[in-house]
Amino acid sequence: MQRAAVFDVDGTLVDTNHLHVTTWWEAFRQAGHQVPMHAVHRAVGLASTDLIAHLLGEDRDTGQDAALSAAHKALYGQYFDRLPALPGARDLLRRLAGDGWTVVLATSAGGSELGALRRAIDADDAIAATAGADDVDAGKPAPEPVEHALELAGVPAERAVFVGDTVWDMRAGSRAGVRCVGVLCGGLPRADLEEAGAREVYADPAGLLASLDESPFA
């Protein structure tokens, strides 16, 4: 029977979380908002509008949202040609695809940003499909991104594993009914990922690959 390996991208396969922190911080600063970097870090993984709402509150001037998102996109876009894949990312996806898993990405990225991330991973031959932010009405921690990934793979939740680096990932995967695996390379503590639903936690893709035979992918 077919099985699905669903992966978050930012902070899970590509080392971008701290770039997002810096560029969101600068976008907020330019708009006159003082948002601590540690707060931005914990919000990374949410879709842009949700991240802004999480950090500025529901009573903010929502008329600024589009400009804030555009500023972040422009600042972050300066790094597109040098985004670094995390250790073992490419080899992990290729190993799982070779073992018969259908590999699907579930990400808030889209367009040229998603293209840059895929170039960084350099494993298009192993990636069957991508569930992006534009494909769903609600982003993580809602289950829709993971559920859409399962639809693309044609696999039920009980035959899937979802790998991510944030509490938003773990909550989305848990709500979708899939087994969740956390990685620490996004910068969040193990305890936070486990509390949010991670069954197992590894250092990074290379650590998961090295322990694959004892992991939920076994």
Question: Major β-sheet, in short?
Answer: 6 strands, parallel
The coarse silhouette is globular
- Low-pLDDT residue spans: none
Mean pLDDT: 96
| Proportion in β-strands | 5-15%
Distance between the termini: 14 Å
Can you give a write-up of this model?
The chain is 44% helix and 13% strand. The chain is globular. It starts with a strand and ends in an 8-residue tail after the last helix. A six-stranded parallel β-sheet has the order 3-2-1-4-5-6, sandwiched between helices. It has ten helices and six strands; from the N terminus they run βαααααβαβαβαβαβα. By secondary structure, the protein is an alpha/beta fold. The protein has helices at residues 17-30, 37-43, 48-56, 65-77, 89-98, 111-121, 144-153, 167-175, 190-195, 205-210, and strands at 3-7, 101-106, 127-131, 160-164, 179-183, 200-202. Its EC number is 3.-.-.-. GO terms for molecular function: hydrolase activity. It is an enzyme of class 3 (hydrolase).
List the helices and strands and how they pair.
Blueprint: E1 3-7, H1 17-30, H2 37-43, H3 48-56, H4 65-77, H5 89-98, E2 101-106, H6 111-121, E3 127-131, H7 144-153, E4 160-164, H8 167-175, E5 179-183, H9 190-195, E6 200-202, H10 205-210
Summarize this, please?
With 218 residues, this protein is an alpha/beta fold. The protein has ten helices and six strands. Strands 3-2-1-4-5-6 form a six-stranded parallel sheet, with helices on both faces.
Keywords:
13% strand; 218 residues; 6-stranded parallel β-sheet; alpha/beta; 6 strands; globular
